[in-house]
Amino acid sequence: MAKVSVYNMEGKEVDTIELNDSIFGVEIKEHLVHMAVVHQLANKRQGTQKAKTRSEVSGGGRKPWRQKGTGHARQGSIRAPQWKGGGVVFAPVPRDYSFKMNRKEKRIALFSALTSRVEANKFIVVDELNLADVKTKNFAKVLGNLNVEGEKALVLYDGENKNLVLSSRNLPKVKAAKTEAINTYDILKYNTVVITKDAVKKIEEVYA
């Protein structure tokens, strides 16, 4: 099992913790990680784009001029795609972009993403993140103590932590989330994972 240091909010090492290799030390499956990211982004798409084809545009029922003898090219409708105000060729229609991904594949992708952060030394374990009050400045100082200030950081915690959530809202590069909301996309989107000791235990309880 891999050992990582545990820091306090002042950035001082206070303990070490062993990570479960079945979650934080797996073989990285890049194709499943890619699939999980595409799966999440595809499921977020609304798919409500719509444009009218020539059959849906109003008007154009009458043939604009006779077939022969005018010197113009023959035309059947003023709502054909080449006319101003005409329909769109191969117009987009509402569709569902989502697709299914097996639960086992999702788990392997999540474990691969977590492992990649551990191997890159971008997995920082904190003994606790209990802020006395709601102050973005104080939370930014904590991140500075952990050497992640200014970096894109995903902060994971277990249970309720209202002060942490509210204090992190005004930091554009930081996202605070519960362990229940952990996903492959967020782990890859943010350079560094800052996680409480309790959150590590929670993840190991759920997925081990």
TrEMBL record:
<dbReference type="GO" id="GO:0005840">
    <property type="term" value="C:ribosome"/>
</dbReference>
<keyword id="KW-0694">RNA-binding</keyword>
<dbReference type="GO" id="GO:0019843">
    <property type="term" value="F:rRNA binding"/>
</dbReference>
<comment type="function">
    <text>Forms part of the polypeptide exit tunnel.</text>
</comment>
<dbReference type="InterPro" id="IPR013005">
    <property type="entry name" value="Ribosomal_uL4-like"/>
</dbReference>
<keyword id="KW-0699">rRNA-binding</keyword>
<dbReference type="GO" id="GO:0003735">
    <property type="term" value="F:structural constituent of ribosome"/>
</dbReference>
<dbReference type="GO" id="GO:0006412">
    <property type="term" value="P:translation"/>
</dbReference>
<comment type="function">
    <text>One of the primary rRNA binding proteins, this protein initially binds near the 5'-end of the 23S rRNA. It is important during the early stages of 50S assembly. It makes multiple contacts with different domains of the 23S rRNA in the assembled 50S subunit and ribosome.</text>
</comment>
<keyword id="KW-0689">Ribosomal protein</keyword>
<dbReference type="InterPro" id="IPR023574">
    <property type="entry name" value="Ribosomal_uL4_dom_sf"/>
</dbReference>
<keyword id="KW-0687">Ribonucleoprotein</keyword>
<comment type="subunit">
    <text>Part of the 50S ribosomal subunit.</text>
</comment>
<comment type="similarity">
    <text>Belongs to the universal ribosomal protein uL4 family.</text>
</comment>
<dbReference type="InterPro" id="IPR002136">
    <property type="entry name" value="Ribosomal_uL4"/>
</dbReference>
<protein>
    <recommendedName>
        <fullName>Large ribosomal subunit protein uL4</fullName>
    </recommendedName>
</protein>
<dbReference type="GO" id="GO:1990904">
    <property type="term" value="C:ribonucleoprotein complex"/>
</dbReference>
<feature type="region of interest" description="Disordered">
    <location>
        <begin position="43"/>
        <end position="79"/>
    </location>
</feature>
<dbReference type="Pfam" id="PF00573">
    <property type="entry name" value="Ribosomal_L4"/>
</dbReference>
